[in-house]
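Priority: medium. Attachment 1 of 2:
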């Protein structure tokens, strides 16, 4: 950990609203050991076999639910850990090593969850990378929440279902629909898993959680395993090339110049990354539907009247095809499906924002 420099900053996903309980909250003091703090820069000051640790003065909360660390220098080994710990955590241990702590480690890309043995989780991080850590707000009041991590603003999705049948679909959906201000998103296949049953596309807000994108009405999707496009049907049409590990799949909408979506508003884009977990299916998701599964023979889905738009798909930055589709009431939401063991993708909802 020699000569490691970190630049950290807390980011509010919502506009700062000082709640009464925050005003009354106890103000903790920051704690650190073998660290030099200069403004918002931390530098490691110990020997290479000694842990240096910094604990911020405030816990994450509803008004401050996410933070990021920018790696300015990895030092000799780059053994940098970013995560969450209890207030009086032992400062001679890396975050994630002791109970009630969790951390993402930059040098090996592993997740450490209260144990000195980590699990493979994501890519390694180097100089210039930003590591983010946050909590899900939906379950915060219940005293139990899910922690997620990002690299350079992208969140990692990992399929954790059984992959034994079509009912084992893992589905993730963005909090907001595509709009004229944010009309495109991308997914990078980190691991194709056993069969690369990865689907990328758009779906209505109440899309059934046990269906791959494209299989049911109100959705359209490009499937990586066979290169087919599925448009509201379980039968796909030949569309483009198959996708493999390392490929980047993209989906967007070509909106008419006079198009206005009812749900467009002036809310901060930071709400895009608010998340909600779904049982046993997908870890670290953007949003997962909570509606009941679609039952056989039940017409849950209604064809919505709406304007037609041109949906397009890309592979590694090149447009591979287009399909005209009717926008459901409320808009088309970025949606990702996975269905075989070991599949992992990185999601970027704002790839064109720079």
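Attachment 2 of 2:
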């Amino acid at each position: 950990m020699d000569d490691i420099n970190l630049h950290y900053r807390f980011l509010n996903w919502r506009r700062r609203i000082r709640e009464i309980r925050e005003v009354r909250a106890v103000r903790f003091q920051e704690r650190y050991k073998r660290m030099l703090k200069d403004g918002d820069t931390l530098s490691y000051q110990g020997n290479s076999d000694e842990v240096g640790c910094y604990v911020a003065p405030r816990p994450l909360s509803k008004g401050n639910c996410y933070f990021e660390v920018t790696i300015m220098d990895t030092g000799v080994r780059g053994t940098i850990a970013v995560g969450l710990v209890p207030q009086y955590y032992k400062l001679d241990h890396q975050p994630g090593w002791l109970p009630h702590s969790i951390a993402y480690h930059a040098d090996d890309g592993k997740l450490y969850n209260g144990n000195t043995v980590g699990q493979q989780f994501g890519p390694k991080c180097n100089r210039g990378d930003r590591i983010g850590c946050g909590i899900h707000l939906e379950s915060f009041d219940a005293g139990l929440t899910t922690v997620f991590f990002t690299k350079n603003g992208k969140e990692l999705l990992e399929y954790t279902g059984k992959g034994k049948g079509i009912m084992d679909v893992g589905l993730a959906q963005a909090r907001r629909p595509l709009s004229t201000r944010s009309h495109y998103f991308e997914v990078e296949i980190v691991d194709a898993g056993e069969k690369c049953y990865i689907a990328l596309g758009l779906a209505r807000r109440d899309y059934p959680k046990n269906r791959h994108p494209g299989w049911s009405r109100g959705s359209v999707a490009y499937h990586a395993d066979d290169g087919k496009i599925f448009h509201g049907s379980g039968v796909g049409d030949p569309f483009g090339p198959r996708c493999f590990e390392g490929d980047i799949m993209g989906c967007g909408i070509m909106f008419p110049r006079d198009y206005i979506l009812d749900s467009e508003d002036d809310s901060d884009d930071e709400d895009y990354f608010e998340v909600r977990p779904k049982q046993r299916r997908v870890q670290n998701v953007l949003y997962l539907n909570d509606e009941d599964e679609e039952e056989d023979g039940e017409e849950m889905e209604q064809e919505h009247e709406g304007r037609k738009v041109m949906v397009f798909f890309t592979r590694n930055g090149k447009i591979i095809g287009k399909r005209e589709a009717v926008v459901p009431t409320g808009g088309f939401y970025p949606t990702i499906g996975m269905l075989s063991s070991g599949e992992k993708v990185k999601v970027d909802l704002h790839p064109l924002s720079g």
